[in-house]
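Action item from last meeting closed. Structure (248 res):
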């Protein structure tokens, strides 16, 4: 079996959005790490990326993780997202990470602390982030308050909404996934009827693309030449993950 997949920073797609109101019973049960990640992302997300056992350093590895003394060995997975330029990121840590030590390291490195004692918030020149020890999470986003409401189940999550359930139904063995990217935001035009798409990258099986048309059955493709090509195609929304631009 291949070792953990390293996703280049420029292709580490960023993507989820922020917030809805209310809370409810999850339609996805969190039986895999990918589904667990959806429990911490806002319900109106249109695109999601997920990396199991993320590696560091990468082009987009946040400096505050280093300041907190957190490295790849302390992380189980990362889920990242944005909508309309707004960013949200969630890191799941190992159970044995000492959050008291992490918080003390952040204060020692000059990060102002605020927020609740059990969910401290820290700031840098470019980001705000929070520690959520009872969930073993570090979270960061442009709307951190909304993201924390999702994490604490005060606001609906993607697991509650079930928005990506049709794509996940065709993901294959989710326990073997090293990377995944799913989107409901496919550019339309030129007679293209693609409504949603996903890329699933397992450790020891072919890369799988799932394409969901406006009407009809989902299509599954597994004929990619290599993983990097598939990831770049999703990042750039090129065939098969996008629709042609009208007039192009």
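Sequence:
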């Amino acid at each position: 079996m291949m070792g953990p997949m390293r996703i280049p920073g420029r292709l580490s797609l960023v993507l989820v959005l922020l917030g809805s109101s209310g809370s409810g019973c999850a339609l996805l049960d969190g039986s895999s790490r990918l589904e667990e990640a959806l429990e911490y992302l806002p319900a109106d997300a249109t695109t999601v990326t997920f990396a199991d056992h993320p590696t560091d350093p990468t082009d987009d590895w946040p400096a505050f993780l280093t300041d907190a003394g957190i490295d790849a060995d302390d992380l189980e997975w990362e889920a990242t997202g944005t909508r309309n330029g707004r960013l949200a990121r969630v890191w799941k840590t190992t159970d044995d990470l000492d959050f008291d030590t992490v918080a003390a390291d952040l204060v020692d490195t000059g990060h102002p602390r605020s927020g609740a004692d059990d969910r401290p918030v820290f700031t840098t020149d470019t980001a705000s982030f929070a520690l959520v020890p009872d969930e073993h999470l570090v979270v960061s986003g442009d709307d951190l308050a909304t993201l924390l409401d999702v994490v604490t189940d005060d606001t609906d999550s993607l697991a509650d909404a079930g928005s990506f359930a049709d794509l996940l139904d065709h993901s294959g063995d989710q326990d073997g996934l090293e990377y995944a990217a799913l989107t409901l935001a496919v550019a339309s035009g030129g007679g293209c009827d693609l409504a949603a798409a996903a890329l699933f990258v397992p450790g020891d099986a072919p890369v799988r693309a799932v394409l969901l048309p406006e009407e009809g059955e989902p299509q599954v493709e597994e004929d990619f030449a290599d993983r990097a090509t598939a990831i770049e195609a999703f990042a750039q929304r090129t065939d098969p993950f996008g629709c042609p631009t009208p007039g192009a």
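Note appended to the action item: Confidence is low (pLDDT under 50) at residues 1-26.
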